[in-house]
Structures are given as C-alpha cells and as structure tokens.
Specification:
This protein has no helices and 23 strands. By secondary structure, it is an all-beta fold.
Amino acid sequence: MSLHGKRKEIYKYEAPWTVYAMNWSVRPDKRFRLALGSFVEEYNNKVQLVGLDEESSEFICRNTFDHPYPTTKLMWIPDTKGVYPDLLATSGDYLRVWRVGETETRLECLLNNNKNSDFCAPLTSFDWNEVDPYLLGTSSIDTTCTIWGLETGQVLGRVNLVSGHVKTQLIAHDKEVYDIAFSRAGGGRDMFASVGADGSVRMFDLRHLEHSTIIYEDPQHHPLLRLCWNKQDPNYLATMAMDGMEVVILDVRVPCTPVARLNNHRACVNGIAWAPHSSCHICTAGPHLGHPADAPGHRGPDPGLHSRGGDQQRAVGIDPA
C-alpha cells in the first residue's frame, strides 16, 4: 500500500541491461514475482528474480545469477498450488533447470541431447506442460522438437535432486523451429504445436507422433516466430511472422484459414499473450506500443487500447493472478 492508502496502478522496474525474456511466477506463495533474462552480446549474461515489495510498492531485485549466452526463454514451473519444488527453466545453448532458494539460485540440471559432440544446436524456445509439470518441450534450429521428462531423485538431506531424460525427439519442420507450446486440448498433456522458418504451424500428439497436422502456412512462406494458445478456449491460437506487423488468429477446427488478422501495429510485432481470464482478449507488443485487443468470439477483433513503452518491447506477459 502507498502512503495515501491507495495501490499504485502502474509499477515499473528498470533492469541494468536490455531485457529479452521474462516470465511471471504462478506460485500462490510468491505473488508478483518475475524472472528477467538479459540480452548482452557476449557469453556472460544474467537472470534476475524480481519481486514486488508491497510496503514500498516497488519492484526490487531479489536475486541475480549468471547465465551462459542470453536466455531465449525462461519459465517458472507451472505450479499454481505450490506443491512442487520452486524451479525455473531457461533455454539458450541448452535447457537448464534451476532451483530457487531464499538466498541463492543453483543449477539443478542441464539437459543435453547431443552428448557425443562438443557442439550443440541452440534452443530457440521451450514450453512447460501445465497439466504434467514433469514434461517440457524444446524447439531448436536443427529442425527438431524434443520432449523432456523431469525426475525427482532420492532425498539427500532435505533436498530432492532433479534430473531429466529425453522422452522423444522428432523432426518437426523442414527448417529451423522457432517456438513450441503445449495445448490444453485433449486433457492438456499430449497435444502441442510448433512454428518455424518454413512458415508453417504444425500440431502434434505425443500419443501419435507418426504424423502431424499443418494448421496454417504463411502465404509468402515468411518464417513464423511465435505461437500462443488461448488460455480458455484451446481451439484458438495466435502466431506472428518475422518482421510482420500483424498477429494471425487461428482456429484448429478450420485449418489453414485464419479467423482474424490483428493489424493495428505500425511496426513489427515482438510478443503476444492471451489473457488468462478471458477467451476473447489478447495482448500484442511491438516497438513502443502494446495493444490489448478483443479477439474473435463475441463481436470480432477490436483494436482495443494501447500502452506506450520506453524502448522496443521484445516480450509481453500477463500476470496470471
């Protein structure tokens, strides 16, 4: 609370470097907590854990740790009940899982599927399964997606050791894969989609990996960089093309035919996020502007509101609380 007894409506935190990746924690005992990944064009990068100090109504840095290369994505474990270890995953050269403590953050495991070589194919993104938090999926520039399984080992002292193994790896696209996301359809565990440099959105089922479904192909075959599933209605997802100024809304029940194109931006779109509480609202971000918009479902897409940022916005996230 502020000195006048009213909550601030806008909170601001300024990191000491360009922020490339961010993610909200969903643990009920860690409200208003963010992880931020740096973008520094050298090997040594940083991850900061930032939390809201409710007495001062300011975001403050709780912890900082080193990270090799910039994080292409980072995610807190999707633990809405606070029953799992407090874990954070990051992607870059490898997938890393970190355990977050009160005073320090330590590396729990490094997941590498190419142990016979000194070289690795960088990971472009990953997703953490909300229904089964022991499942993660990664996308890579080597055209593959890999599904990882986490394991909790025997208890040593008071600490459960976490390790991981490859459950399956598949060639997902003809070119680099840029993003992967699990769907809440069919129970929320086995369905996922990916996008890549070949300009397609492809949907997979872990129970039937011998084939996939092409949901959409960009008419000009422009690379598709990101995809995001609707949090309330798993029939809808959004994607965006490299250097594109619009967001394409897709319905998996009508493959290859967009139900809407949101084109209120005047420069390339850098991030998309569906509202956690509504099937009809989506937020898109680009240089200097963020646009909450109405997506199809009621009265069609509405350009909605916009907010102005101080610099290029490379990521957007909505607090699930």
